[in-house]
Design goal:
There is one protein chain. The chain is of the alpha/beta class. The strands form 2 sheets. It has a 7-stranded mixed sheet. Helix 1 links the parallel strand 3 and strand 4.
Amino acid sequence: MEQTTKLTFLGTAAANFLPELKTIYKDCFDKTARRASCMLIGENYLIDCGMYVMESIRIAGVDMSKITDIFVTHFHADHFVADHVAQIAAGKEKPLRLWVRRDAEVPPIDNVEVVYLPRHTEVEIAEDMCVVSMDANHDPKSFPQHFIFTIHGKKLMYALDGGWFLTETYNFMRKLRVDMAVLDATCGELIGEWRIGGHNSLPMIRVMVPSLKTWGVFDEETRIYLSHIAPKLHAPHAEIVENVAKDGLLVAYDGLTVLL
């Protein structure tokens, strides 16, 4: 019987938050008023641990005691807050593992074991689960990386934050085929937006996806989710969904669960 893994989008925003998170949405998820991007793989593996993550964990009813590993895409505050990592690590019998880029500078955190990921090398996380780190096109001082997880033989690409792909990363990915991808879509339909040095817009994604299909990284069966969506640069969620449906793209939202 084929094994599946539950993926939970605990947050899907770029660092561009709506004030309603502090008021009407302080105890619930909303598809447009998004919290900082992070994802839970199964019950044990958290990708990013930044602003709002503790709220997201509370609202989703996540059992923090089961989180054994945190994977850090980069060290901007919407993706990494040391105090939040410390709260998750507190009281665990075994140290929480924090997976970071090979050259990252990590502050000391009690009961945390830092694991430095080499580039383009598959590293075993657990039985039937591996990860590969790929450098990302984002602020280099934040030690950015994308991930490709292999879970029960299926591949998940998690590519937040980043604009396009670096040449070395693109060449490495050409050897792979992924079943699901989560792509940065910070800038919406904006053209001439200054953030494209380290983030994607929808026009960029419309070029990127067919190009990756040409090389077999994606195919018609690959599910492609947009995340890291800046609410102030995008239309409301329902309008984004309608807008990108013609491109074969899916739009993640806070609280969404999918199976890989």
